[in-house]
Amino acid sequence: MSGRKKDERAVSIPEVKEIMENVKKHLSKIDSEEGMSHFQEITYNYVNKFAKHDSKTAIKIRKLLIDKHSIEELYAINIVNIDPKTIFELRLILEKSFTGRTLTNDQLQEILYQLEDIKTS
């Protein structure tokens, strides 16, 4: 695998998991004996352990938070990665966010309901 940077963007852990699965599949087609590098293997193991959703659900959640609630992308990604269950947890993630500081407890509860709805659909 070349060490060149193709693209740079912020992604959630479930999205990294999908990327790493594609890398692993691609590398096994090229050279099944060589496989992934040590760093890639560590990353692959990490994302498999800590991904709390599939990538499609993660993208839906991120899009909802950014488009409907105007939450900054980095905070939306943190919400996807951490998967808060309570208003307190969600407020902790958003406490430094410009938008998040202005949200009331009722608005945060509504966000939690919407997240749960996406995860169960």
From TrEMBL:
User: What Gene Ontology terms describe where this protein resides (cellular component)?
Assistant: RNA polymerase complex
Q: What is this protein called?
A: RNA polymerase Rpb4/RPC9 core domain-containing protein
Q: Where is the RNA polymerase Rpb4/RPC9 core domain?
A: 3-120
Among the GO biological process terms of this entry, one is: DNA-templated transcription initiation
Q: Say which species the protein is native to.
A: marine sediment metagenome
Which GO molecular function annotation, any one, does this entry have?
A: nucleotide binding
Q: Which SUPFAM superfamilies match?
A: HRDC-like
Q: Entry's Pfam families?
A: RNA_pol_Rpb4
Q: Which InterPro entries match?
A: HRDC-like_sf, HRDC_dom_sf, RNA_pol_Rpb4/RPC9_core, Rpb4/RPC9, Rpo4
